[in-house]
Amino acid sequence: MAKKEKKGSSGLTKSEVKSYRQMLLDKRKILTEDIKRMEGDSLGKSRQDQSGDLSNMPIHMADISSDNFELELTLGLIENEERQIREIDLALTRLEDGTYGVCENCEGKIPKARLKAIPNATLCLKCKELEEEGMI
Ligand SMILES: [Zn+2]
After folding, report:
1. Which of 23-27, 67-71, 87-91, 116-120 shows the lowest mean pLDDT across its residues?
2. 62-66, 76-80, 91-95 — which is least confidently predicted?
3. Are residues 107 and 84 in the same domain?
């Protein structure tokens, strides 16, 4: 007989919980540092622009819009990484309460290969596809 697992439970061993937690914390650290670096870059850049040498005038409109585009791109990336951090925090909570690796939609198990690739995944591949199609 296989060991009993209640529905909605991850059924992970202690060492698996430990390794997923480590993966999540590592990923969180990388994301946090990345955001800090990107914020530093974009903030540093706009500071530099404000105190810019007036002899560079007139400012070409093309330069301004490409700068804005870059800034917007960076802000988009930061937003995306912040969302991932929130997902990681959620995953860490789920590790503690034993529901990590359980699909939020169908309550099926998320394959371990998927969790290893995306430790903050909250949906199984099938439900993720449904979500992307706007089905759930
Ligand atoms: Zn699912």
Report:
1. 67-71
2. 62-66
3. no
Say whether both 76 and 130 belong to one domain. Answer: no
Share of the chain above pLDDT 70, in %: 77
Confidence of residue 132 (pLDDT cuts 50, 70, 90): very high
Q: Name the phi and psi angles at 90, rounded to 5.
A: -65, -45
How many angstroms separate the CA atoms of 70 and 93, rounded? 35
Question: Is 33 inside a domain boundary?
Answer: yes
Tell how far the Cα of 13 is from the centroid of ligand 1, in angstroms.
21
Residues with C-beta atoms within 5 A of ion ligand 1: 103, 105-106, 108, 124, 127
Q: How far away, in angstroms, is 95 Cα from ligand 1 center?
A: 18
Number of domains in the chain: 2
Distance 134 CA to ligand 1 centre (A): 14
Q: Following CA atoms 6, 10, 12, 17 in sequence, which dihedral angle do they give, to the nearest 10 degrees?
A: -140
Say if residue 26 is in the same domain as residue 91. Answer: yes
Q: Report how far residue 133's alpha carbon sits from residue 123's, in angstroms, rounded to the nearest whole number.
A: 14
Q: Give the global pTM.
A: 0.73
**Cα 132 to ligand 1 centre (Å):** 13
